[in-house]
Amino acid sequence: MSINDESRNKMVSYLEKFGYIKSEHVKEAFLKVDRSNFIPGNLKEEAYRDTPLSIGSGQTISAPSMIALMLEVSELKFGLKILEIGTGSGYNAALIAEICGDQNIVTIERIPEVYQFGRENLKKAGYNVKVVLGDGTKGYLEDAPYDRIIVTAAAPQVPQSWKDQLKEDGMIIAPVGMERYYQELLVVKKKNDTTFDIKKHGGCVFVPLVGEDGWKE
Ligand code: SAM
């Protein structure tokens, strides 16, 4: 077993012990995907610390505990159709691909350099995930409707396009709030075109979702 594998096993034990990982499929995904493949060279040694890390252009790969929490509340299973907004490093997309299948996820990123970085990382790690360059505040109509829209940047509110691009019983999982350094993790479940159930899953801090229906640059 390599030092990397050992560190990954330790991180997964920690995430389980503190209740971030609850289900077998999320655990399996975390054991399988090597986070160091999604981190720039100078920070690779930090890969298995439970902390966000810089990926350039002022953006971050989220902390493993935050990702685990979001994946658990997303109630994922193989075959669900997923839109991830905020590709970043591609790590979360790889975890989702492990659970739902790489043909079932599309991920969108707005910064060209970050888009290249995430796309390359996913490709090198062997994931055939569709990565799109664009403004995710509009969702991504081409592959809609989705079972889940998983947002990894902080939205001031939930845009109507996300609600419209969701299937019935589908869920939006997103950090939402009007403050720069505090959001609430929301799960918004679509009952029908006009009725949505909203559940709050605690405070969090994400980089801003910038775009037409998000924060302005
Ligand atoms: N999921 C990522 C990972 O696994 O590394 C972490 C994402 S990082 C916390 C948030 C990302 O959202 C950044 O790369 C940022 O450029 C991107 N972003 C911000 N606004 C966006 C938008 N309107 N559409 C798409 N991506 C956006």
TrEMBL record:
What PROSITE patterns has UniProt attached to this entry?
A: PCMT
Tell me the superkingdom of the source.
Archaea
TM stretches of this protein:
none
A Gene Ontology cellular component where this protein is annotated is: cytoplasm
Instruction: List, from the UniProt record, the residues annotated as the active site of this protein.
Output: S62
User: Which SUPFAM superfamilies would you find in this protein's record?
Assistant: S-adenosyl-L-methionine-dependent methyltransferases
Please state the protein's primary subcellular location.
cytoplasm
Q: What is its EC number?
A: 2.1.1.77
- What class does this enzyme belong to in the EC scheme? transferase
Query: Which residues does UniProt call coiled coil?
Result: none
Keywords tagged on the record: Cytoplasm, Methyltransferase, S-adenosyl-L-methionine, Transferase
Q: Where in the cell is it found?
A: Cytoplasm
Which Gene Ontology molecular-function terms are recorded?
A: protein-L-isoaspartate (D-aspartate) O-methyltransferase activity
* Catalysed transformations (reactions): [protein]-L-isoaspartate + S-adenosyl-L-methionine = [protein]-L-isoaspartate alpha-methyl ester + S-adenosyl-L-homocysteine
BP-aspect Gene Ontology terms: methylation; protein repair
Q: What NCBIfam families does the annotation carry?
A: pimt (TIGR00080), PRK00312.1 (NF001453)
Listed HAMAP family: PIMT
Its biological purpose is as follows: Catalyzes the methyl esterification of L-isoaspartyl residues in peptides and proteins that result from spontaneous decomposition of normal L-aspartyl and L-asparaginyl residues. It plays a role in the repair and/or degradation of damaged proteins.
UniProt record similarity statement: Belongs to the methyltransferase superfamily. L-isoaspartyl/D-aspartyl protein methyltransferase family.
The name on file for this protein is: Protein-L-isoaspartate O-methyltransferase
Q: Which organism is it from?
A: Candidatus Methanofastidiosum methylothiophilum
